[in-house]
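User: Can you write out an input/output pair for a complex, sequences first and structure second?

Assistant: Here is one pair. Inputs:
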Amino acid sequence: MTAQTLPQGARKTARAIHRGDVSAEEIARAALDRIAERDAEIGAFTDVTAERAIAEARAVDSARAKGGTLGPLAGVPYAVKNLYDVAGLSTRAGSKINAADPPKTTDALIVSRMAAAGAVLTGALNMGEYAYDFTGENAHYGPSRNPLDAARMTGGSSGGSAAAVAAGFVPVSLGSDTNGSIRVPAAFCGLYGLKPTYGRLPRTGTFPFCDSLDHLGPFARSVDDVAFVYDALQGYDPSDPVCAARPVEPVTGEIAKDLDGLRIGVATGYFRVDADAGALEALARAADAVGAAQEIDIPGVAEARAAAFLITNAEGSALHLERLRRQAADFDPETRDRFLAGALLPASWAISAQRFRRMFEETMRGAFAQVDVILAPAAPTHAPLLGQKTIVLGGREVPLRANMGIYTQPISFVGLPVAAVPVCEPGQLPYGIQVIAAPWREDLCLRVAAALEAAGVDRRG
Amino acid sequence: MATDTPGAAANAPARETEAFIDANAAVLGLTIAPEWKANVAMFVEVARAMAARIEATGAAAASEAAPVFTPRPLTPHAPQ
């Protein structure tokens, strides 16, 4: 096969390898070639694991040649945000400080699940320092650049994870999302993503940001590929103390179901105040596409966002307190001052914010008594320019970094599952929509996401 | 209103915030370079405004999401 005729997407690649239409090594080498040719321009990768990729691909080919059973993701190239442990690499977590740590001897748990499923790891991906970021910029490793327009941000903090998929280097990647770090970059780069329910995927072997809010999840260019990878990642493990002892609940067979009987609401109130015209048009188009007529105004969203902000600031800074004492000057200046401020906050502020979490959880229970799924914007605007510091929202100029997560933060605050869906007109930058469901209903998020995809809300062609 | 305008919602005089920063940093053993202080103060003021918003909800008297402990196999503790 030529580079032009190689299968595209994770499921199609795995199927072609299973059938013997193409070798896993050919697929891996093509991915490594794409990275070598173009990543200097994009800045998605901080580490390319070429030797490992070839070894894993050859193992797949060898197993097939011997008539062995191949995993569902056999030969699918992928890459992970560099806060995931990868054997042989230091886990940078976007920082200069952790880059000096010894290389890890084992993989993060869900990297080992990807390997067990036959996937081929091509490397570790750029990210905002310690995941405290919505831009994809990084003072140590340079920015990840948006493949749709290299002058623009990918969004963050899983910026490299989005860039690697949007640039076509790999069909799928793994990121993390504490306050929106999968959903915002998916929106800016025109991708699908999934932030599962808090407690669904074990985070063992990933460097934390804010433990009580941290989630892991995949990016891909189709809903089917998101579901395909997510199903391979599921499963309880007691090594993460908040991983829920639930059975694997596969979603691949659920996403093709029609929407009959599903009550789909559209978020109003807080979710529209500061959205720009494009974000509001994208939300309206998505609502029309799935016949979502009911508007839902959730009370207390601004407070939920404020509480998430405080918990993140306080918990994240507690994690880094010793680093802040010893090596504050080695932090990215964009995270350092926020971490320093967070380290100083009175305990009562953080504790009250945690207590508000129970109150807002009750509020969301009420919302899901009215509807099964809620549509909301993923970000108030499209991808800003790299280096941009402020943005005009709701007629006021506000700091950009602090405000890209205003719509995602209140949702992850109570751990709800969310699929990110791109909405785009030809020749324009994409906007992102959040498809939100009640806890453990990733199936509903992806079912509605698949309906939006099938309805063609992304009209880039 | 969803967005933040640092400082707009916080009524603390700059010197009050600066005194707060200096005192807490000393207790915690943090050194904050003079050129970082204005930015740190801005973030403290944003957090203060957020905290005021939460205080107004009465959350201080609500139940906390403390863990429920259940028996399970011993797993090694791996501090970061």
